[in-house]
Amino acid sequence: MSPPFVNSPANDALSAGGFCSSSHPWATAAGVEMLARGGNATDAAIATAFALAVCEPAMSHLGGQGNMLVHMAGEGETVGIDFYACAPGAARAGMYRWIEHPTQGDYRFLTEGDLNTTGGLSVCIPGAVWGWAYAHRRWGSIPLGTVLEPSITYARGGVPLARRMSGLVAENRDRLARYPASAAIFLRPDGSPRTEGEAVVQPELAQTLERIATSGIEEFYSGEIARAIVDCVRSDGGVLSEEDLALYPEKLFRVLPPDAVSFRGYTVQCTPPQSSALLLHLLCLLDGFDFRTCDPLSPEKLHLLIEAMKLAFAERAVHIGDHAFVNVPIGGLFNPAYAAERRRSIDPQRAQFPGPGNPWAYQAEQPDPASLTGVMPSSAGHASCTTHHSHVDRWGNFVSISQSLGDAFGSAMVVPGRGFFLNNAMKLFDPRPGTRVAAIAPYKRPLMPCPTLVLRDGAPVMALGSPSGTRIPNAIAQVLVSVLDHGTSLQAAVDAPRVHWSGYELEAESDLPDAAKAGLSRLGHEVQYRSAKSPWFGAVQVVTRDPKTGLCQGAADPRRQGAAAGLADT
Fold first, then answer.
1. What span, in angstroms and rounded, lies between the C-alpha atoms of 449 and 467?
2. What is the pLDDT of residue 568?
């Protein structure tokens, strides 16, 4: 039986030569260009990754981080690549003075001087360039110089600021103004922010990309570029060192098998472990509900979805973090029996506010207090300004990749003479006193996005993912339910109104039908309605391929003004 999402509804484009989907049309075009030049999905993904740094620089950059899943048809397995940023070796609890203040989903913390969000002390060890280059070296089929050509052209010739980017420049004007190299790119000589449609020319970034194309990436971690990064960070009070950068490729970069659960007869895979646990546990909970006979936006269906989100996020508070530092009961969280136990606590007639369960009771391995950190209720942060892109080629190779700077423009610091932003991933850690899941520690990782692949009978059929912090797992889950339960077309599934719960309030897009709004109110839900099609609710980029026919589809989320494009078979 063919998967329901390859039925080619009239409003979904079809292609036999592959498909790319990202949050910027020019970045998508860079990926499709690689397919047209004979490249595979990995070539397309890495071309898009670099192009997004040029076209959407607030969301990801060379000084950022990310993770990805790669499934090459000839290898028959999925590989997870974790190139997320890690705290510097000199990072310590107490390095920031926490300001007591209500947090956003228990993951956004204020500190004196905003030192965990802006400037040198907010910078973690970046992994983006190493992760992209590793994937290209292992699976790419055309030269790196060719893959980088679109990005170099964009940086040198200029990219018009999109509406969302111009808004972020305006919002971050004061942060960008603190650093001359940043201001020179995004602010006018009088200090005012560049606006929508203005071309942003980045000659120094073009030179850095050309250097990577001709000399490779090693000097990013142990050469001239590495020294420039450290000089930039240290000049503003940061603690990142050349030793930290040199350590990343050999000791901190990770290649891992994906985590996976069964959902609706498909295998859903995510990069492990801290990025996968929340989404995959949520899918385990949802797998026990039959939504096929429900209207996709009925209040009864939305109620069960919301209550499952509450259960999943209750676990996040105490059980999900960097596995090298925190006890993570993966076996229990993914155990169908545990999901069934937790589902039984849901009242189908009334909203509730559950606490965490005990997944340890559903797995043999128990926490090791001698080697792993005990925890108090708190949450590790997700990067809120992230971007995702998905790719499939004519041969059935898939790549799902998320990349981030942390906040918009990361630390707000552009490395002088090099043209790229540095992350502010330190803001994702919990600076409060006490032992917590997200406590600061040397070389620790925060929570990550969750690039996702869907397989049927061992063959990949879908790649998808989303940005937007804690909204990532909920956005992905809602698209999967729409497609797999309701047979919705890809674009309709991505466009549909979303709901979100992450621990403090229930949110929904304002274009939810009136009947759904009234029904949720009757069931006891207090909903904060936000603008329809807002990036606040994620931006899912998705591609699919039918392994029987070879036909590919793609959809881009209108919440980020992205684009999906395919290549006709040649």
1. 7
2. 86
Catalytic residue among 118, 271, 386, 452: 386
CA distance 281 to 283: 5
Q: How many CB atoms lie within 10 A of CB 532?
A: 16
Q: What is the reported pLDDT for 106?
A: 53
Give the pair of three-digit tokens for residue 202.
Answer: 């980045």
Model confidence pLDDT, tens digit, residues 171-197:
999 999 999 999 999 999 999 999 999
The answer to whether 41 and 401 have CB atoms below 8 angstroms apart is no
Burial 364-387 (b: 16+ CB within 10 A, else e): eeebeeeeebebeebbbbbbbbbb
Rounded (10°) angle between helices 144-157 and 25-36: 150
Paired residues of 78 in beta bridges: 71
Contacts of 415 (CB under 8 A, 6+ apart): 63, 181, 225, 228, 229, 232, 422
| Low pLDDT (below 70) residues in the chain | 1-11, 102-107, 273-275, 317-327, 367-384, 434-437, 570
What pLDDT is attached to residue 377? 36
Q: Which helix (H) or strand (E) holds 225?
A: helix 224-234
Calculate ∠ Cα 314-319-324, nearest 5°.
155
Check if 146 is active-site.
Answer: no
